[in-house]
Amino acid sequence: MKFSPERIDAQSISGYGPGWVAVAGEKIESSVILGAKGLREAWDVQSFEQLGPEHFAHLATLDAEVMLLGTGEHTRFVPPKWLAPLFSRRIGLETMDRFAACRTYNILAAEGRNVVVALIISPPPSV
Q1: What is the Cα–Cα distance from 18 to 4, expressed in whole angstroms?
Q2: Are 60 and 85 in contact (CB under 8 A)?
Q3: Cα–Cα distance between 29 and 15 in angstroms, integer?
Q4: Parallel, antiparallel, or unpaired for β 66-70 and 115-119?
């Protein structure tokens, strides 16, 4: 029996690595917000330490059922009070490392969920 993948109508992440993600064949090397319905915007965050409550106020204005936060190479958590704008709109937030956020985003988008992911993408460490 031959299996073939179903067609995914949502915007998906086609690849990722240290310092980048790929969407529709384009390599993105800076922080970005992506949505299953085609949302794509630059995000003015270069590191976790730059996050502030204003970033979550902006995320709350986006049309999302589920919000994912990819915090970089490691999972890190923001102060709960920063999430008030999301919670007041009944938008759930899941925080995880960037690679896990990419995988989770693709799964939820393929299920037809209205998911948005905010990814912190920092330059890879120099060797």
Answers
A1: 30
A2: yes
A3: 12
A4: parallel
Q: What tokens does 73 get?
A: 């190479």
Instruction: From 75, 33, 35, 73, select the one nearest 55 (Cα to Cα).
Output: 33
Contact at 8 Å (CB) between 111 and 65? Answer: no
pLDDT tens for residues 50-101?
Answer: 999 999 999 999 989 999 999 999 999 999 999 999 999 999 999 999 999 9
d(CA 54, CA 85): 10
Side chain identity at residue 5, one-letter code = P
Which domains, ranges and CATH numbers included, belong to the chain?
A: 13-119 (3.40.1230.10)
pLDDT (tens digit, 9 = 90+) per residue, 3-12? 335 556 789 9
Three-state SS for the chain is CCCCCCCCCCCCEEEEECCEEEECCEEECCCEEEECCCCEEECCCCCHHHCCHHHHHHHHCCCCCEEEEECCCCCCCCCHHHHHHHHHCCCEEEEECHHHHHHHHHHHHHCCCCEEEEECCCCCCCC
- The predicted model scores a pTM of 0.90
